[in-house]
Amino acid sequence: MIDVSAIGKKIVETINKIDENEKERSCGQIIYSGDGIIRIAGLRDVRYNELLEVRGGYHALALNLEEDCVGAVVFSGEDKISYGDLVYSTGKTVQMKVGEELLGRIVNPLGDPMDGLAPLQTQKTRPVEYPAPSIMERGKVNKPLQTGILAIDSMIPIGRGQRELIIGDRQTGKTAIAVDTILNQKGENVICIYVSIGQKASSLAKIITTLRNAGAMAYTCVVCSTADDAVPLQYLAPYSGCALAEYFMYQGKDVLIVYDDLSKHAVAYRTMSLLLKRPAGREAYPGDVFYLHSRLLERSAKLSEQSGGGSITALPIVETLAGDISAYIPTNVISITDGQIYLENELFNSGVRPAVNVGLSVSRVGGSAQRPAIRQISGQLRVNLAQYRELAIFMQFGSDLDSETQKSLSRGAKMTDTLKQRQYLNYSVQDMVILLIISQSDLVDKIPEKKMTAFCEGLLDYIHVNQADLSASIDPDQKVSDSLRQTILKVAEDYINCSMGDDAEACSAAGAGSAVGAV
Amino acid sequence: MNKKNELPAARVIVAREPDEETIEKIRHFVKARGGSDIQLVIDQNIIGGIVIYIGDIVYDGSIRSRLEKIKRSI
């Protein structure tokens, strides 16, 4: 039974808490309302970016302070606001609720829960717009952020505090990389924030289900604004997410934030700017669209040890049209970030997944944070792959190939196959060391073409079950010694002989049996 | 906005006709905050209390706004 008296008591308590004192407030009257934009006469001492309160409890954001009126965008209730309504200034900027309570939750850009669970108890807030850490507060990126994706961790390493852009056409696996990276942070002591900007509610629901099922929501907060949310909320979402990330960073924690995606953010801002009658520039974006993203991404940083040593690693996502990375928003964001992962439609369709274009993808600061073991053995990988691709293009038209060329072509193809990786199948650093050593050794010649990806997965399963101490003996922070390299190659050779030989069936049966035994 | 740089007249909204003493108090309050004359408006919609506008500044001590505040916080 519901305790009525307790509810009554709670109500009385709440009413008593309300500040009865009436302060003087500046006010104005709505003289125009349309498309989510209001113009207000009066409001003499309002400031830029100030939160306004419209009678009825709706909120608006003052963006244009003009000679005779104030232009503002409303967050909700635009259909309930009418001409002549009073608007009050609040003296505050927009605040985002922050705190540990937000982990595991789905909130909107103002910090209100959207998951239908209990209201947030946190009293702590942070301004949505906040200056980036100063020069002296910053430290050097020196710790890796493992994505668990071999192609990225070996050739485009990301460090904690770095901003790495994920760019590509629609349906090339941009979000998949970001989600995989979030999943791989389990037990890594990294707090993850996934900011969805103007996404379809259906795809967002899918991502949230994935995170939930993998147990990743325990360290993740989703800041969501879907495609049907008011444009100002879509505009605010990345800044709100960043405010939450900053809260953790200034406590000395490591945070990973995914902005999915900034092209929609730019579109939302363009909508607001055009409706506010700001002058349009290239592609009809307003003049400050560069600053829009640069001030957001500058807030991702690695703090120095004196400032607590926390970090925000940002993975902004930008969608291109027909692979055009020289459009306005892609070039802007490429120049702001510390590198990009470029995903290509053609690669994706030909089965190379993740569809990372190794030639166009770079990481400008992550190299110094790469684990020594990986750095040692992946040094040649990028060059080898580039050579293979060049050779492959050149040989496309040739029919008679000498055995040497054929061999290097087949090796290149197998190297590419090694980098293929199923979604949600994250490799540990030890796994990566093993795969990288084998894919660059002579052993690959023994593996039939087109079997390389299956071989890699099979080998790792075999090692996890039968050779657990081999994995344990690999120290990612040490260079790989020659004896360790030989041991790895020996185990792989055994596996090849076993799985490719006459007794392949017996071997896989034994492997399966021991796998079941291990479970 | 007052274009002639004159002191703005204060618009005072009350629910019932106030007595002389109260009007004198209001006039004193308005003068202290830069208003010139007062212009009294009776409006039952505010239920009770008083709302004073001096130029762009509002002092809202009405029962209606308090009830709205309570409604929002519960």
Explain what the structure shows.
The complex is a heterodimer of chains A (519) and B (74). With 519 residues, chain A is α/β, with parallel strands linked by helices. Chain A has three domains: 23-93, Elongation Factor Tu (Ef-tu), domain 3; 97-369, 3-Layer(aba) Sandwich (Rossmann fold), CATH 3.40.50.300; 376-518, ATP synthase alpha/beta chain, C-terminal domain (Lysin, Up-down Bundle). Helices cover 39% and strands 18% of the residues of chain A. Chain A is built from 17 helices and 16 strands. Chain A has helices at 4-17, 150-155, 174-183, 201-213, 231-249, 262-275, 289-297, 328-336, 345-349, 372-378, 381-395, 403-419, 429-439, 452-466, 468-473, 482-500, 504-518, and strands at residues 25-34, 37-42, 50-54, 58-65, 70-74, 86-93, 95-97, 106-107, 125-127, 165-168, 190-199, 220-226, 254-260, 311-319, 339-343, 362-363. In chain A, helix 4 links the parallel strand 11 and strand 12 (220-226). Chain A is elongated and about 85 Å long. The model of chain A is unreliable at 509-519 (pLDDT under 50). Chain B is an alpha+beta fold. Chain B has two helices and four strands. Chain B has a four-stranded mixed sheet. In chain B, strand 3 and strand 4 form a beta hairpin. The termini of chain B are far apart. Classes of the chains: A alpha/beta (519), B alpha+beta (74). Chains A and B meet through helix 1 and strand 1 of A and strand 4 and helix 2 of B.
